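Hi everyone,

Forwarding the result from last night's run.
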Amino acid sequence: MITPFRNILRSTIAAIAFLSITQVVAAQSITDARRVEFTPSPDHNAVDAASGVQLVTNYTLDVYLSGGTTPVQTANLGKPVPDTDGMIRLDFIALLPAALTPGIVYESVVNAVGPGGASASTRSNTFAFTALCAPAISPASRSLTTSSAATGTVTVTAATGCTWTAASNTSWITITAGTSGSGNGSVSYSVAANTTTSSRTGTLTIGGNTFTVTQAAAPCTFTISPTSQTIAGTGSSINVTVTTSAGCSWSTTNTSSWITINSGSTGNGSGRVTLTAASNSTSVTRTASLTIAGQSFLVTEPPAIPTAPSNLRIIK
């Protein structure tokens, strides 16, 4: 007659303890535990002589709220081979159906499971998990629609005790407050004026998050020198200097027939316009208005002075 399995599965597990990075004594509470260790059932390798069936098929780990009576999760540990010191050790976190809640204190029981039922160990030491330190920021970006200097603030949301730092990855963005913090906080920053004619993008790294700033290009402005010139009625060459930023395009418009654009009909960045004014053969002063880089340039030319007589002599 075969002895019932439930009577064969005897006293099972002598001790159960949770381990973090280093081994600890069973009574010590553990933070951020990963492994479980226990002495296997004395029946770990036993086989029913009558049927040839192993008395222990596997172990399970029941996780309880500290002091609770109903398991919140159960992990199947399988039937690991004991270490050389006779203890079984394994990573139980990877075997749980779901992650355990940070900040909650747990304890557990390991069960030796066989055909005749299961037998539980005493309760383990307590263990818990710290909240993940994952700061969040708001907003995550900012778009500046002008090239003007600006300031701003980024809100940091983090768990109590969660430390974070902030750093600028761009020379034209400066952190003015909040280079580091713990828990909730904020980061203040200033953005320098964009003096270039290209938009630009820069970033801050805040608690591992990227905050992006996009700033518009500076508008193109133009000046010319001189803004007007009066020339002799016999005509003249005229030079006008255009001053602007690199990348700014401009052109010269002329509607006067007696003005010729020799160079500088178009340009990019600072440059020069060279003009030639023809001799004024009329009896009145004339003017011409040109547009150079969006600026008005006025040329004034009086009538040409008559040609002087020649071959002068006094005769009798």
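Helices lie at 5-8.

Cheers,
N.
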